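The record is given unchanged here:
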Amino acid sequence: MTSPTRPVDIVRVTGGARAAARDRAAAEEPLEIRIAREPYAVIMRTPGADRDLAAGFLFAERLIRSAHDLVDIHHCADAAEHENTVDVTLADPDALARARTRRRELTAASSCGVCGRQSIDDLARDLPRLAGAVVVAADIVARLPERLRASQRAFDETGGLHAAGVFSTDGDLLDIAEDVGRHNAVDKVIGRALLHRQLPLAHAVLCVSGRTSFEIVQKAAVAGVPVLAAVSAPSSLAIDLAERAGVTLIGFIRGDAFNVYTGAQRVA
C-alpha cells in the first residue's frame, strides 16, 4: 500500500545554525480514473482510499446516484502506474456518454461568465432542498475542529494535509479522511459512505479543515449532509449554494465562537 507521507532530506535552521535532518512530507500523486478502460479524469491526491475517492468523485459529478450504479472499482494491474490508476465499471453503460454531454453543456455556458450561477441552478434542479429537524448544540460545533485535528495522524507527521470528518450530532467522530486537497478528503468520506450504503448522511455533521468552497458545499448537498462546518471562511458562492440547497453552513470556528452563514435554525 502506498504511504500518504514521504521521507525527505532537509536542512533545518535554528537560531542561525544549519543542520542536515530528515523530515516527512505529504505525498501528492495523480490518480487517473478510467471508466470502462476509457480515461475520464485525473485527480491530484494523497494516495490511499482510492476506491472511496473515485466513488465520492463520481457521486459528486452525478455520474452515479447510489452504490447500485457501481459494478466494480479496482486498480489497473496493466497500467504503467497501476497504483495510481483505477478503472470503474458502471451498471449503466450509457451513463458516461450522458455525463460527457452534460460537461460540454456546462463548459459552453461558462463562456458567458455565469459559470457559478449556472452550476447552482443546475444543482438546485437536480436535488430537493434539504429539510429535517437536525439540531446541533453550539458547544458541540465549537469542539469539532479540535476533535478533527486530534485524529489527523498523517498531519502529525507532515503538517501538510487537510481533513474531512463525519460526526454525529452529539460530536462523535464517525469517519475521517486526510488528503492534500480539501475536496478530495470530502470525496473520500462520502465515497466510503456510499460504498457502505450509508447515504444520505441525513443525521450527520461534516467538518472540514481550511475554508469552504462551492465544490465542498456541493458535495455535502448531494450526500444529504444537513450541517457543514469549517475552520475558516466560506466563499460567497459557497454561501449562495448552501442557502439554495438548505445546508447549514458554519465557518470561522475559533474557540467558542463561530459564524453561521445559512440555516441557523439547526444550531441550538
